[in-house]
Amino acid sequence: MRLKELIQGFAAFPSLSLGGVEDMEITGLALDSREIVDGNVFIALAGSRQHGLAHVAQTLDKGACAVVFDPAGGGMQMAEQIKNVPMIAVDDLSLKLGEIAARYYGNPSRFMAVIGITGTNGKTSCSQFLSQMLDDCGIIGTLGWGKWGKLNKTINTTPDALETQRILAELLKDKKKTVAMEVSSHGLEQGRINGVIFKGAVFTNISRDHLDYHGTMDAYLQAKLTILSKPGLDFAVVNLDDFYSDQIIAAVPKGVVVWGVSVQGKSLASCEYVSAENILHKMDGIEFDVRWRGDIQRAKVPLYGDFNVENILTVLAVMLATGVPMSEAVKKMPFIKPVTGRMERFGGDEQPLIFVDYAHTPDALDKVLSSLRKHCQQALWVVFGCGGNRDKGKRPQMGRIAEQWADHVIITDDNPRFENGLDIVDDILAGCSEKVEHDSTRKVEVIQNREQAIQKAIARAADKDCIVVAGKGHELYQEINGVQIAFNDSQVVIEALKMRAG
Fold first, then answer.
1. Pairing mode, if any, of strands 353-357 and 344-347?
2. Other residues' Cβ atoms within 10 Å of the Cβ of residue 486
3. What is the CATH number for 382?
4. pLDDT, tens digit, for every residue of 299-337?
5. For residue 230, which of 73, 94, 435, 458 sits 20 to 30 Å off, Cα-Cα?
6. pTM for the full model?
7. Which of helix, strand or coil describes residue 165?
């Protein structure tokens, strides 16, 4: 692509910035100065701490052929000092980067059905289940991007705008027809999905999360709703059982078909309606009747919990909205594989039944524990903590929920980051009625060392007990004082089960 094709309609000062080199060929775009190769255009954003132009010298040494920069944040003053390279100013560059990147990569989302999945909990499960249920379906999300079972690493749930378009182009090259894309509230507010054309938008649920960033629940919800304003939208799937469902449906633009899903019998005359009835919780999974337009079929899924019924209904609604017959979708359900770190099952038989789950919000923990009460034959255990330098208000809520549902609660560390782990524990204990720490005879106990906490829960539990290890799920580290130390809940569980077996 030529430089003038890339920035046409975006450049704030074309005559001043281009310097008569509009026809130069460019080899790529890069946000990270360390990734620049010869012929690349360097994208310099106005960061909250530092402007990207602070690294421009390094990019020029590596062969950057032009710089696209945001004039805000001192960018224009810095750019005036840079000579011998085209400097293209673009106002609000962070919000326009997605469209610029989409242009460079040939607007890949136009040629695939991109399903944007947003909500507080369930995004990863729904995207992973969709990729298993739909043919030629790619994934972009928390666990990575690519195809199910073979994912490339991503740093964020929703990658930056440039990386998002590059990934979409790769998925199109790999002949993917559909993309199940997790869309976070941060990603929406920061414009990371700008330039993406969505066929469908999915709202799993809305509950307290990321208030350290958004400030209020209303601001959090409004960030989520912006996905409905994206171009190309044909349908939206909404969880009718969610408290915010009415507000979500009210924000759906005219002409967009609403698909409502419910496990509580709620319906809406103005939308397509898919429900689950006669739900059974068994040791080998869940069974329920699926109802749509008068058609009722029995579904069996090797997953656990009411929330996974919601997830499966959501996936089914997407499939129906994209033209898959219900009978075909239901036939595939028994073959769904669980998601790493999402109600991932270990033990059973002559060992306690153990689940490793990412539940790190009050709503997620409540759903996991209340659901497993229906599967658990004897005592229910939970091992969990709360992350440091994040929303402190949810900590006592999670303490209260854990004590409400579980017979045994072990509070432990979970990415304390730069906070004192004991301060986090105290915040959690503030929601519990029991205040005695380090006493295994009490319902609520504190064992800060996460490995020891998991080991002791597994060693003490009876064979027919259930244990939930919550909060970290798929994560492969503990973050303490800025250092990521290798740690994996699932691996600790596997080793502890071996020790128990003797």
1. antiparallel
2. 8
3. 3.90.190.20
4. 999 999 888 999 999 999 999 999 999 999 999 999 999
5. 73
6. 0.81
7. helix
